[in-house]
C-alpha cells in the first residue's frame, strides 16, 4: 500500500519515485522534491506500473472494454462528471475514437516508461484544465477537481474488480489490494494529492458505497449513454464501408451491451435511477450459480438422474418449498427466451447507400464534422474537441497546444459572428444549413497555418511522410503535391480549407475528424 | 393549441425540455396520453420521397415521445400505429409497415425493457399479420409484462368499434343478465380492461378526426391538434401539448373540474 495514511498531511517530498535505471529489481529511492508515484508498493511486491503489474493482466482482456463502458456509466451518473461529459465530450458522436484515446492514455499511464507517463500526465492535466463550467442547474464543475478525478479512478478500479467477479474469477484479497495500489499510483502520477481516494482498500468500499448511494444521480449524460448511444452506436471505422453488416451487428451488440451494463450496475443505484432487473442477465448468472451449486453435492462424474427427475416433475402449485423457486425460475426463463429471440439478428436487409459523391450535404457535414459533441449544436466545446483531437494526434506540448486552441477560439468567434443569427451563443444545425456559409474566413486560414506549423515538427516548411503519418495515421500517397513527396504549406492549407469549407470528403481528414 | 409551430422547434434543446417536465409535475400531468400519429405520408410528399420514408422517419419520433412521456410522469401512453382500415392501403406500403414495425420492435425491445416500460399491443388479431411479427410482439409483451414503469399501448390493427363489439360478445358468452350490464361491467370485457380512460389525445398534422381510435376510452378525453407532421414531432412539442392540456378546464359534463385520471364510475 502507499505510505500516506489518513492522519498524515500528504507530503509530496516523501513519496517515493521509481528510478528508471533500477526498475529491474524494483528498488526505490526517495524523491528529489517533484511529485512521483511510487513504482513498487510498500511490501515490495513488484512494480505498480508496467510489465508485472496487475493492470497489465487486464488491459488486453476483451472483457475490459465492457468494464470501461460500465465505468463510464458510473462516471456519467456523477452530477459533476455528467455535466462535463454533456458539455464537452465527443462520446456520442465519436465513441470509438474516444475509447481508443482512453485506452491509449491508460496504456501510457500504466506503461513501463516513466518519461511517457510524465508527459501523458501533463497532457491530461492540460486537457482537464480546459474542461470546466456549470451544469444545467448552475452548479460549477471542473475536471481538475481532485475529488472528481478520484471518483473516475474509483469507477475504473471497481469496474475491473466487478468484471473479474462477474466473470467467475474474483480477485483474491491480495490481488485486489495490489490493483488498488496501482490505481492510487495512477492518480498520484497525475499530480493529485493523496487523500481523495481512501488510503486502504478496506476504507475504499465504504467510500464507494457512499458515493453510489448518496451522490450519483440519474443524470442526462447517463441517460444518453444508456438509451441513445447504444441505440445509435455509429459504425467503427473498420466497418464504415459495410453499413448493412454493422447495422446487423449493432442490432445485437448495442442492446446487449446496454443490458449487460445495466445488469452489472450496483443495486442501490439501479433502484434509485429506476433501472429494472434484466431477466436475461440475471438468469444467466442464476443458471451458473445453480450449476455450480448443484455440482458441489454430486459425487465426481455421477449425475443423480432421480433427483433431477424429481425436480422436473414438481408441480408448480404443490406446497413443496422448491415449487415457488421453480415457478419463478420458469417465469424468468420465459422472459429470457423472449429477450433472446428479440435480439437475435434478422437476415440483413438492403439499405439505400447514402455515402456517394465527394461533397456532403450541409446537414451531413454539420453532423459528421462540426458537431463533435453530438448535441445538435455547434458550440465552443465542439471546436475545442477538434483542437483536443488534433493535439492528441500530434502529441503537442506547450506552447504549440495553446496556439492551436487559440486559433480555434478565434475561428469560433468568427463563426459565431457569421452564423449565430438568433444570438443564443451557439449555432444550430438549422442556422448553419440556412446560411449555407462560406467558412473560409481569415480565422479558419489561421487554424490551417497553425496546424501546419504544429505538424511540421522540424520546421522545414514541408510536411514529410513521417509528419504526415503522425497527423493522419495513414501513409502519404499523394502524387500531386510535388516531386519531392512532401506536402507544402500552400497545398496543406488548400486541402484543409477544401475539407472544412467546401465540405469535400477527404481520405485524410475524414478519418481524423468525421469518423466515429 | 400548438398551431403555428415551425420546424425549427424540432431542434430545441432536449435538456431544457426535461427540466420543464420536472418543474410541472405537480400541476397535473395527464395520466393517459394517446397519440394519433398522422402526417407521415405528407411529410414524405413534401420532400418528394416515397411514403415509406415518412414511416421510417416516424421511428425517431416514437422513441422521442416515449422517453418524453416517461420523463414527464405520464403513466399510460397509447400510440395509434395501424387501424383496421389501413389494410386497404397499397399492399407494398402495408408490407413495408409490417417489416418496419418488426424491425422497430426488435431494435428497441431491450431498452424499452431497461426503461421499465410495460409494452402492450392492442389489436394484432388479423391473420394477415405476418407470423414472425406476431411472435415478436408476443415476446415483447412477455418480456416487459412485469414492468411497473409507464405502460405503452401500441394500437396495431386496431378498431375502436371492433373492441366494443368484442366486449359485447364476451358479455353474452359470459351469460351476464341485461340488467347487470352497466358501464363498469361492460368496460371489464374490453381488451386490456385495466386501461384507464384517455385524458389527452394528440393528433398531429392538423387533421381533426377520431378515426375509430379507442372509442370507449376517449369518451372524456381532451384533444389537441398540433399542425406539425408526426415525423417532425419531438419532445418539446409533446411537452407543449401537456401544457395546453393543463390550461383546459375539464368538466366531464358537470360543473366541477375533477382530477385527471379519476375513474368516472
UniProtKB/TrEMBL annotation, chain B:
Cofactor binding: number and manner: Binds 2 magnesium ions per subunit.
One Pfam family here: Prenyltransf
Active site residues according to the UniProt entry: 38, 86
Gene3D superfamilies reported in the protein's UniProt record: Decaprenyl diphosphate synthase-like
Gene Ontology terms for molecular function: ditrans,polycis-undecaprenyl-diphosphate synthase [(2E,6E)-farnesyl-diphosphate specific] activity; magnesium ion binding; manganese ion binding; Z-farnesyl diphosphate synthase activity
InterPro entries per the UniProt record, alphabetical: UPP_synth-like (IPR001441), UPP_synth-like_CS (IPR018520), UPP_synth-like_sf (IPR036424)
GO BP terms in the entry: polyprenol biosynthetic process
Annotated binding of Mg(2+), by residue: 38, 222
Top-rank taxon, per record: Bacteria
Cofactor names: Mg(2+)
Entry's EC annotation: 2.5.1.-
SUPFAM superfamilies, per the entry: Undecaprenyl diphosphate synthase
EC category name: transferase
UniProt keyword Acyltransferase, yes or no: no
GO CC annotation terms, alphabetical: cytosol; plasma membrane
Residues bound to substrate: 39-43, 51, 55, 83-85, 87, 89, 203, 209-211
Sorted UniProt keywords: Magnesium, Metal-binding, Transferase
Family: Belongs to the UPP synthase family.
UniProt function note: Catalyzes the condensation of isopentenyl diphosphate (IPP) with allylic pyrophosphates generating different type of terpenoids.
Cross-referenced HAMAP family: ISPT
Subunit structure comment from the entry: Homodimer.
Protein name: Isoprenyl transferase
Organism of origin: Streptomyces violaceusniger
Amino acid at each position: 500500500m502507499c505510505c500516506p495514511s489518513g492522519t498524515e498531511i500528504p507530503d509530496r517530498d516523501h513519496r517515493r519515485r521509481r528510478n528508471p535505471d533500477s526498475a529491474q529489481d524494483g528498488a526505490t529511492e526517495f524523491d528529489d522534491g517533484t511529485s512521483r508515484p511510487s513504482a513498487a508498493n510498500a511490501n515490495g511486491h513488484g512494480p505498480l506500473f508496467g510489465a508485472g503489474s496487475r493492470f497489465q493482466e487486464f488491459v488486453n482482456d476483451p472483457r475490459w472494454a465492457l468494464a470501461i463502458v460500465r465505468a463510464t456509466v458510473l462516471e456519467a451518473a456523477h452530477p459533476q462528471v455528467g455535466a462535463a461529459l454533456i458539455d464537452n465530450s465527443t462520446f456520442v458522436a465519436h465513441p470509438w475514437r474516444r475509447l481508443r484515446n482512453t485506452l491509449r492514455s491508460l496504456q501510457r499511464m500504466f506503461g513501463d516508461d516513466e518519461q511517457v507517463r510524465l508527459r501523458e500526465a501533463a497532457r491530461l492535466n492540460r486537457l482537464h484544465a480546459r474542461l470546466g463550467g456549470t451544469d444545467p442547474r448552475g452548479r460549477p464543475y471542473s475536471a481538475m477537481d481532485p475529488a472528481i478525478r478520484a471518483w473516475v479512478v474509483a469507477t475504473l478500479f471497481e469496474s475491473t474488480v466487478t468484471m473479474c467477479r462477474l466473470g467467475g474469477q474474483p480477485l483474491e484479497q491480495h490481488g485486489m489490494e495490489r490493483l488498488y495500489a496501482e490505481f492510487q499510483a495512477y492518480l498520484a502520477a497525475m499530480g493529485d494529492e493523496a487523500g481523495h481516494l481512501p488510503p486502504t482498500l478496506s476504507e475504499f468500499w465504504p467510500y464507494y458505497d457512499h458515493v453510489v448511494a448518496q451522490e450519483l444521480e440519474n443524470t442526462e449524460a447517463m441517460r444518453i449513454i444508456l438509451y441513445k448511444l447504444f441505440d445509435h452506436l455509429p459504425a467503427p471505422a473498420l466497418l464504415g464501408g459495410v453499413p448493412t453488416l454493422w447495422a446487423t451487428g449493432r442490432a445485437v451488440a448495442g442492446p446487449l451491451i446496454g443490458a449487460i451494463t445495466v445488469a452489472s450496475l450496483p443495486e442501490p443505484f439501479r433502484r434509485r435511477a429506476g433501472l429494472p432487473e434484466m431477466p436475461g442477465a440475471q438468469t444467466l448468472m442464476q443458471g451458473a450459480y445453480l450449476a455450480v451449486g448443484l455440482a458441489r453435492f454430486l459425487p465426481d462424474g455421477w449425475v443423480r438422474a432421480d433427483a433431477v427427475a424429481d425436480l422436473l416433475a414438481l408441480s408448480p402449485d404443490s406446497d413443496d418449498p422448491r415449487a415457488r423457486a421453480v415457478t419463478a425460475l420458469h417465469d424468468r426463463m420465459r422472459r429470457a427466451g423472449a429477450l433472446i429471440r428479440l435480439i437475435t439478428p434478422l437476415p440483413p436487409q438492403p439499405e439505400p447507400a447514402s455515402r456517394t459523391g465527394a461533397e456532403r450535404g450541409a446537414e451531413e457535414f454539420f453532423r459528421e464534422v462540426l458537431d463533435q459533441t453530438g448535441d445538435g449544436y455547434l458550440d465552443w466545446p465542439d471546436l475545442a474537441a477538434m483542437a483536443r483531437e488534433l493535439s492528441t494526434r500530434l502529441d503537442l506540448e506547450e506552447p504549440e497546444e495553446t496556439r492551436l486552441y487559440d486559433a480555434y477560439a478565434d475561428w469560433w468567434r468568427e463563426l459565431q459572428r457569421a452564423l449565430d443569427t438568433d444570438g443564443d451563443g451557439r449555432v444550430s444545425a438549422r442556422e448553419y444549413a440556412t446560411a449555407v456559409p462560406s467558412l473560409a474566413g481569415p480565422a479558419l486560414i489561421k487554424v490551417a497555418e497553425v496546424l501546419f506549423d504544429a505538424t511540421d515538427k522540424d520546421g522545414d516548411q514541408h510536411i514529410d511522410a513521417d509528419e504526415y503519418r503522425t497527423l493522419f495515421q495513414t501513409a502519404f500517397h499523394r502524387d500531386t503535391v510535388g516531386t519531392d513527396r512532401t506536402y507544402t504549406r500552400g497545398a496543406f492549407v488548400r486541402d484543409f480549407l477544401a475539407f472544412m469549407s467546401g465540405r469535400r470528403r477527404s481520405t485524410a481528414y475524414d478519418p481524423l475528424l468525421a469518423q466515429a | 393549441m400548438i398551431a403555428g409551430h415551425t420546424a425549427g422547434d424540432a431542434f430545441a434543446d432536449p435538456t431544457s425540455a426535461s427540466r420543464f417536465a420536472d418543474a410541472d409535475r405537480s400541476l397535473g400531468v395527464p395520466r393517459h396520453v394517446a397519440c394519433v400519429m398522422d402526417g407521415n405520408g405528407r411529410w414524405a410528399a413534401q420532400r418528394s420521397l416515397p411514403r415509406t420514408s415518412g414511416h421510417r422517419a416516424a421511428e425517431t419520433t416514437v422513441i422521442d415521445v416515449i422517453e418524453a412521456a416517461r420523463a414527464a410522469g405520464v403513466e399510460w401512453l397509447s400510440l395509434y400505429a395501424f387501424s383496421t382500415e389501413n389494410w386497404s392501403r397499397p399492399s407494398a406500403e402495408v408490407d413495408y409497415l409490417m417489416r418496419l414495425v418488426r424491425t422497430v420492435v426488435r431494435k428497441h425491445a431491450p431498452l424499452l425493457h431497461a426503461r421499465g416500460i410495460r409494452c402492450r399491443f392492442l389489436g394484432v388479431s388479423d391473420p394477415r399479420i405476418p407470423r414472425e411479427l406476431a411472435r415478436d410482439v408476443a415476446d415483447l409483451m412477455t418480456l416487459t409484462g412485469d414492468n411497473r414503469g409507464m405502460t405503452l399501448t401500441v394500437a396495431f390493427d386496431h378498431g375502436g368499434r371492433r373492441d366494443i363489439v368484442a366486449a359485447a360478445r364476451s358479455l353474452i358468452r359470459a351469460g351476464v343478465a341485461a340488467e347487470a350490464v352497466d358501464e363498469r361491467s361492460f368496460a371489464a370485457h374490453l381488451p386490456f380492461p385495466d386501461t384507464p380512460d384517455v385524458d389527452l389525445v394528440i393528433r398531429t398534422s392538423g387533421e381533426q378526426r377520431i378515426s375509430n381510435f379507442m372509442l370507449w376510452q376517449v369518451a372524456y378525453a381532451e384533444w389537441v391538434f398540433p399542425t406539425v407532421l408526426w415525423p417532425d414531432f419531438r419532445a418539446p412539442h409533446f411537452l407543449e401539448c401537456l401544457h395546453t392540456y393543463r390550461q383546459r378546464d375539464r368538466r366531464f359534463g358537470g360543473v366541477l373540474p375533477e382530477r385527471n385520471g379519476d375513474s368516472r364510475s
